[in-house]
Amino acid sequence: MKLRRSLLYVPGNMPGMLQNIPVFEADGVMIDLEDAVPLQEKDAARLLSRNFLRFYQNRNKEMFVRINPLDTPYAAADLREILPALPDGIRLPKADNPEIVERLDTLLTEQEEKLNLEIGHFKIIPSIESAQGVLNCVETAKASNRIVALAFGAEDYTASMEIDRTKTGEELFSARTRVVWAAKAAGVQVIDTIFSDVNDMDALRAETTLVKRLGFTGKSLVNPRQIEVVHDVFRPTPEEIENAVEVMEAIKRAREMGTGVISLRGKMVDAPVVTRAARTLRAAVAFGMIEYTLSDEVIHGEK
Amino acid sequence: MAKNSLGREIPAQWRGRTLDPYVDPWNKKPEVLRATRPLVRRSPGDSKLLPSLRAALDKCELRNGMNISTHHHLRNGDLLLNLLVKELDAMGLRDMGIASSSVHAVHAEIIPYIRKGVITRIETGVNGLIGEMVSKGELKCDIIVRSHGGRARSLVTGEVEVDAAFIAAPCCDITGNMNGVHGPSACGSLGYAYTDARYAKKVIAVTDNLVRYPAAPISISQSDVDYVVQIESLGDPRKIVSTTTRITRDPAGLLIAKYAAEVIEASGLLKDGFSFQTGAGGTSLAVADNIRRKMTEGHIKGSFGCGGITGYFVDMLEQGYFETLFDVQCFDLKAVDSIRRNAGHREISADLYASPFNRGSVVNMLDCVILGATEVDVNFNVNVNTESSGYLLHNTGGHCDTAAGAKLAIVVAPSIRGRLPIVRDAVTTVTTPGETVDVIVTERGICLAEKHADLRRELIRRNLPVKDIHQFHEEITQITGTPRPVEFEDDIVALIEYRDGSIIDVVRRVRE
Description:
- The structure holds two protein chains of two kinds.
- Chain A has helices spanning 15-18, 42-55, 75-82, 98-114, 131-140, 154-161, 173-186, 201-214, 227-234, 238-256, 271-286, 296-300; strands at 6-11, 28-32, 62-66, 89-92, 123-128, 149-152, 189-192, 218-221, 262-264, 267-269.
- Chain A is of the alpha/beta class.
- Chain A has two domains: 6-234, TIM Barrel; 238-300.
- Chain A has an eight-stranded parallel β-barrel with strand order 1-2-3-4-5-6-7-8, surrounded by six helices. Chain A has a two-stranded antiparallel ribbon with strand order 9-10.
- In chain A, helix 10 (238-256) packs across helix 11.
- The longest helix of chain A has 19 residues, at 238-256.
- Chain B is an alpha/beta fold.
- Helix content of chain B is 26%, strand content 21%.
- Chain B has 15 helices and 29 strands.
- In chain B, strand 3 and strand 4 (17-18) form a beta hairpin.
- The A-B interface holds A 19-20, 22-24, 55, 199, 223-225, 288 and B 249, 251-252, 254-255, 416, 443-444, 462-463, 479.
């Protein structure tokens, strides 16, 4: 599974910002054709983004495009222009119910056939960003095999709830929890909403720490300066890494002995413990904190 | 016309001066004694006080073809040079040279006097309009661009004779003791003026803050000063120092700063005794911020910071990151305040700071310097004087001095500026030779001089984006395209003097 701790929005109508995409260390970028782009620049943004994606061949991060909602007149043109430039996937705004995701799935399949791509090439990250979306997200998360993560969008969500968004985010707690449940139940990742005050790094850190604790696996970002804080929060601690390495070594010994359970300093090491350790180690490797080769056979046992 | 060692075409002579083409940064040796100035006897009761600038100019017995100087600590708030040039004109003097430590945008007021023939030479670099007009051929004025160290050298060796130095003194007494730390025009360090005080034929202190004897502290002393003139105002305080200098918020600039700090750490220089210079730009300050964090984490105590001093460096001094600041120029009010009250914040002369021809300058003790660039090339040569337009727009400052002195000279710049690639096949103008430049850091990659194989390995080990400069050049031009080269006429409008006095490049008139 790919790391998606940081998904950075870049406005599709800003060439200066598009050309800087390769240099920032976000796990993924979402080129925005929706809210960041004024109506009179929708077509320019589409062309600029398409050309940038074509140019950006040796990609060092995942590239998603946030298209306009499917019920607007812009979405069809967005997909038509963007998909031939081969983004990794689509961030789908206003995914209020599973049918919307299914519609996008069909459109993507059509394009994949036209472009001679493997079916399923384009991934989907549905945005859960309304009261209705939150209520339906359990089903939405399972609406397509293309879904790699659910994303929570607090700005539109609070608007739909007719409430204000606060820095501490108590008003988001239930919605966040439900989105995390939906994602975990469907076996996909889950990305938290943006934090819009780009100068308040302390509050960003607090919010990221909170959502990590709730189960989110990453966060949407509006400014490259936020990447470092978010990665820092999601970075495993040296103690966690050390413990994970010990777990892996222990389970390796267990597998050699033909069992899937072993005791490590008096604590039982079994499948869920190993899965957690593997996740920690994958993150540690991604952060460049250690060099470690994970083997599926050790994690899951020989089939 | 011969080529210097960097392949730049240098004429054998220019305006009557035989030119010495640049060979390398190290081997040119001084072959003269220090310049001298006449000794003078002043008896008790003799007054140095003169009623006006005109009276002082009269006393200097200036003739056509002579040089005057000022310092540029008042930067864009300076009124003195403009006043002096007007007086020179009123006195009917022509063919005069300006040998100030720098000329700023505010001095565009002297353009009419250049047209009139009052001023025909500027013995220092220029910032702004004068350089642009000279580059376009719209203004005739011979310019010799010198670094801070190079200018000090040229006065000490007598290559440049200053016939009258007018030193703006924010605080001064009737005998000429002066400092820059008190008064309405306080600018902090008077570092550039020290050399003038020692070597000019006549030294005139000009002040808007005449205090009772003795003015203290004494930066430049009464024993060097011939006359004292009181005028209403030396400058516009709002433009003398900026109130704040700030860390960049540009994400690309911050990334550059992060990489630069990583390079410094990886070099092994960041340990107890670390010495550092960085500029006042937003990215340079961000490098300092990163370095400060790394020093905190590693419990590292540095020795000194130097160059132009900002509030940021003052904080580092006060918080114990450095023991000493060597200050040739204060960039903001916080620095001015600090130099006034903190004994660890030392005022130093440009000679001590950066001259190649003394018995060793401060830059030789620098571990690391962060430098800017308008362009760099695949041979690591750096341009800060001209822009890709070909116009001479910026003075050298301490660029080539610190690059030569520091163990690690790091150029930080965005990879694309104004749609142009920062790396070129050859820079328009060489300010600083590639031999003295170690690392070029951009947001898209880090390029290292070949000699740094160990550092290269270490940076790769740390997963930093190390790139071969040719490959990097290609990568950037894929984005920007190859810019059409600027075309030049044959005539030379300015010399770029290397710090040792050899000619590293010339600036030719741009074909419009």
